Amino acid sequence: MNIVPKPPLKWAGGKRWLVPELKKMWQTHQHRRLVEPFCGGLAVTLGLQPDTALLNDINPHLINFYLHLQQGLDATITSEEFEKDIFYARRDRFNGYILNGQENTRESAVLFYYLNRSCFNGLCRFNRKGLFNVPIGSYKRVKYMVKEEFLAYQSVLSNWHFQTGDFEDVELQSDDFIYADPPYDVDFTSYAQEDFLWDDQKRLIKWLAQHDGPVVLSNQATDRIIKLYKEAGYELMFLDAPRRISSDGDRSPAKEVLALRNIEKPVSDPTQMKLF
Ligand SMILES: C[S@@+](CC[C@H](N)C(=O)[O-])C[C@H]1O[C@@H](n2cnc3c(N)ncnc32)[C@H](O)[C@@H]1O
């Protein structure tokens, strides 16, 4: 049996729960290169296991971590290292690398992993100066990957190409299969230093319009996103996301939209649609 490794990081907006649905769309396109302009926590690429992939994200620390994992990162961190003084000393050290322009180092990749697993909710936030500012998480215990687990990713990632930058700088080939998972259309979405604004959602649709190959897009199903995607000629599917809408006390599941272009809509088994 082909064992698919779990995403190595905690990442906001991770789409592991969408993989069964995306697999149905990917099935007849597996000969293609998979392109993820917003690869984030890698849940989708790890789930689909393409032979070739181009994986981009605007967060340079995230991509630096994957590049070092790909080269073979033999780090070992023990649970005893989840400790307040160690956490803040390592956060300062990580920020020191950023200030010195040395954020591409191996140690910076290990520190990024440590901070991701140890900080509050695995958030990845930076202040105006670009320095990581998430406090320590309120966990009883943190289990970090051991050396063998880090090294196991080396072969899994070996045929995939990683790059960092804005999605518009991703160079597409006409037969690529694109899965685009931009930050949700909600206020105050900030993954890296830059916010992803409404203009960026529109810019993404314009950029994707030049692509002749299959495109799958996912987003929060807000009224304006539904309108934008419909007007751009996408076929839409709606799913209940595993997270709940929590503002103003509403506990109903958030609605997710999957938007498809140049690809057949899979026949959905209604019993498979409850994904949580
Ligand atoms: C919803 S997350 C992707 C989650 C991913 N699909 C997963 O399963 O883990 C969106 C990602 O877009 C990245 N991002 C934000 N603005 C971007 C931009 N302009 N270009 C490329 N990536 C961007 C963020 O850093 C974040 O990792």
The bound ligands are: S-adenosylmethionine
The strand order across the widest sheet is 3-2-1-4-5-7-6
Termini separation comes to 24 Å
The share of residues in helices is 25-40%
**How many helices in DSSP terms?**
8
- Major sheet size, sense and barrel closure: 7 strands, mixed
Provide the low-confidence segments as ranges.
189-193, 271-276
Supply database-style keywords.
seven-stranded mixed β-sheet; single chain; 31% helix; binds S-adenosylmethionine; Adenine-specific Methyltransferase, domain 2; disordered C terminus; alpha/beta; globular; 8 helices; 276 residues; Rossmann fold
Protein model, in words:
- It contains eight helices and seven strands; from the N terminus they run H-E-H-E-H-H-H-H-E-E-H-E-H-E-E.
- With 276 residues, it is an alpha/beta fold.
- The chain has two domains: 16-58 and 165-272, Vaccinia Virus protein VP39 (Rossmann fold); 67-153, Adenine-specific Methyltransferase, domain 2.
- The chain has a seven-stranded mixed β-sheet.
- The longest helix has 16 residues, at 84-99.
- The chain starts with 18 loop residues before the first helix and ends in a 15-residue tail after the last strand.
- Mean pLDDT is 91; it is low at 189-193 and 271-276.
- Bound molecules: S-adenosylmethionine.
- S-adenosylmethionine binds at residues 11, 13-15, 37-38, 40-41, 43-44, 56-59, 166-167, 181-183, 191-192, 196.
